[in-house]
Design goal:
This protein is mainly α. The protein has two domains: about 1-205, Cytochrome Bc1 Complex, Chain D, domain 2, CATH 1.10.760.10; about 215-240. It has ten helices and eight strands. It has helices at about 1-15, 35-50, 60-65, 70-80, 95-100, 110-115, 120-125, 155, 185-205, 205-235, and strands at about 55-60, 90, 130, 140, 155-160, 160-165, 170-175, 180. The protein has a two-stranded antiparallel ribbon. A hairpin with a 7-residue loop joins strand 3 and strand 4 (about 140). It starts with a helix and ends in a 5-residue tail after the last helix. The model is unreliable at about 5-20 (pLDDT under 50). It comes from Parashewanella spongiae. It is found in: Membrane. This is Cytochrome c1. It holds the Pfam family Cytochrom_C1. InterPro entries: Cyt_c-like_dom, Cyt_c-like_dom_sf, Cyt_c1.
């Protein structure tokens, strides 16, 4: 519990900087039963995100068990920092130096989906656009002045933001089609959805189990209600 409180205290101030109130959020439509998608998300997260971000309240071994990955595959395919399979999923980036490089220490992302929601994460990962005024040459449509580089730019390519104003002075911005990426728009969308799904799973690993158990509890309460009703009728039959 103490670690979770620390994670929230650390993550909330950073994530709260993202306004995004006037930006339409795209629906991620995450399916936590699709383990193939979650495994692809783990793979992409380890390749493109884990260099700076951690999911330090998850263990490699637990992830392997939940996603149906053998421990040997977890060691050889998804652990890139020399960690043991039973260790927490931390990273090795120096905190002080990272704060200088990016303006703030990259937050742990274990609870990111629970703090911001899956649709926000999905839209955020698709929302990078060219902005030469920023240190890394990119900005984000729902996280203005973001300090993070677009680590998957080689996959998506480069898109630009085009803004216009109506007669009342209301500003509307939209992103152009990305160009120069190694993936098609549909393939990149799926990659982003896979990563988002993995982070949704990381924030609540027992979600499916809890939801399944909930139906059993509701079923028990329903049956108990019926039994209680007939018991009540039996006990009060002579009174009425």
């Amino acid at each position: 519990m103490k670690k979770l409180i620390i994670a929230l205290v650390t993550l909330l101030p950073t994530m709260a900087m993202a306004a995004g109130g006037n930006v339409h959020l795209e629906q991620a439509n995450i399916d936590l039963t699709d383990k193939a998608s979650l495994e692809r998300g783990l793979d992409s997260f380890q390749k493109y995100c884990s260099g700076c971000h951690s999911t330090k309240y998850q263990r490699y071994e637990r992830v392997a068990t939940d996603l149906g990955i053998s421990l040997d595959d977890m060691r050889t395919k998804y652990i890139h920092n020399g960690a043991k399979v039973g260790e927490l999923m931390t990273n090795s980036i120096p905190q002080k130096e990272a704060a200088k490089w990016f303006g703030a220490t990259p937050p742990d992302l274990t609870l990111a989906a629970r703090v911001r929601g899956e649709d926000w994460l999905y839209t955020y990962l698709k929302g990078f656009y060219k902005d030469t005024s920023r240190p890394f040459g990119v900005n984000n449509s729902i996280f203005p002045s973001v300090g993070m580089p677009h680590v998957m730019q080689e996959l998506q390519g480069i898109q630009e933001q085009v803004c216009s104003e109506d007669e009342q002075g209301h500003k509307t911005c939209k992103l152009t089609e990305a160009k120069g990426g190694t993936l098609s728009a549909e393939e990149y969308d799926q990659t982003v959805r896979d990563i988002t799904g993995f982070l949704v799973y990381s924030g609540d690993p027992v979600r499916l189990e809890r939801e399944s158990l909930g139906w059993y509890v509701l079923g028990f309460l329903f049956i108990f209600f019926i039994i209680s009703y007939f018991l009540k009728k039996e006990y009060w039959r002579d009174v009425h």
